[in-house]
Every structure is written in C-alpha cells, then in structure tokens.
Design brief:
Largest sheet: none
Number of helices: 9
Order of helices and strands: HHHHHHHHH
Oligomer: single chain
Length: about 210
C-alpha cells in the first residue's frame, strides 16, 4: 500500500515543486504537463524531482490535499465564529464552500481536468475532503441542537445529507451553467428550505418536551 504523503513538514524544495507544478496544471492541463517540465521550472534534474514525488499523480494529490486543508480551515473559522448564530453558521458554511468552489473552477477547464483525474485515479482524496468538511458541518449541527436552533439525532449522518443537498453548488460541472449571482441565489433558496425544516423539527421537539413535563 502506498504510504500517505506528509503535508505538515514540506521543505522549501517540495513547496517549490508544488508551486511550479500547480502553475503548469492550471495553465497547460494535467495531461500535457510532464515531470521533466516541472523539474526544469525548478532548476533541478528529473531524477531529483522523483526523490521528492514518485509520480506526477503524487504531486497532484499533494496539491489538492493542501487546497483541502486551506478550505477546511476557512470553513472551520465559520463554525468557530462566536458572533454568528447556529443558523448563520450553517448558511455561511455553504455560501463559503460555494464561493471557494466557484473561484476554483469557473472558466478554468484545466482545474476541472485535474479534479477529474484525481477522482478517477485516487477517489479516496475526494472522500477524505468530504469527510473533513462533514466533521465541521456536524459540529455546527451539534451546537445548533444544543442551543435549540436545530433538532438533530445523528450529526454526522445529517451532515452527509446536507452535503448531498448542496453538491450541485460545488460540482465543477454546474459552473458552466450560470454566473455567480444566479447560482448564489439558488443556493440561498436551498439553504432557507433546510433552515425552515430544522426550525420546524426544533419546534416539534420543544412541544413534545413540554407535553412530557406538563
């Protein structure tokens, strides 16, 4: 089994390789980029490049894993914002996720090519990404359940359902269908439906509790 590549202790050379490779991936495309070209951009031999990354796919994986960490950190900042209510955190979570995905893929077919290659060759990366974001979303749901905003029995399972509901707004394909404002308005409509559902469930649970203690 291929060991997972480290991400926290990348040295300057590894970072230089990732920077050079990402520029080529996003400009020329993953398929047309070669290891020798990446090595030339870094002023190193191809053999030395292979010492850091065994394959072009390994470079692409690390690039995407670093993107994932940055995005999850931004979503975590939303979840931890003390000035936002639970409903506002949920709304902001999906808006931020949509904005980041839109910026990453809109009018960037080479980014879509890179994403498709990783989904095909290493689907585990996408699963890890969704799971990492799902844990942040579950924490928002747990806090909302605790303060009475939501009624959630299984936060992780509910987070997965919500991620599925919002998938349209993070899939690279949709960004060729419309502009940001139109898609954002559609997303807001979906979020409001979700929040209405949570409010109804919370009110129902509160009424049941009152009957128990009546």
């Amino acid at each position: 089994m291929r060991p997972e590549m480290p991400i926290d202790n990348l040295d300057d050379t590894a970072k230089q390789i990732l920077d050079a490779a990402s520029r080529r991936f996003l400009h020329y495309g993953y398929g047309k980029t070669t290891m020798s070209e990446i090595a030339q951009d870094c002023n190193m031999s191809t053999g030395n490049l292979y010492r850091y990354f065994p394959s072009k796919l390994d470079i692409a994986e690390m690039f995407v894993r670093m993107l994932r960490r940055e995005q999850v950190a931004q979503l975590r900042a939303v979840a931890d914002d003390p000035d936002l209510s639970s409903a506002e955190k949920l709304r902001s979570f999906f808006r931020r996720k949509f904005q980041l995905a839109y910026e990453r893929f809109h009018d960037k077919p080479k980014a879509y090519e890179l994403s498709s290659e990783l989904l095909t060759s290493r689907p585990k990366i996408a699963i890890e990404w969704e799971n990492a974001e799902g844990r942040v979303l579950a924490d928002i749901l747990i806090a909302g359940d605790a303060d009475g905003s939501f009624a959630v029995d299984s936060p992780l399972e509910t987070a997965k359902i919500l991620q599925d509901a919002g998938y349209r707004f993070t899939s690279p394909v949709v960004f060729h269908e419309g502009e940001f404002d139109a898609l954002a308005a559609e997303l807001d409509g979906v979020i409001e439906l979700i929040l209405d559902g949570f409010a109804w469930r919370a009110a129902k649970q509160s009424a049941l509790e009152k009957r128990k203690h009546a």
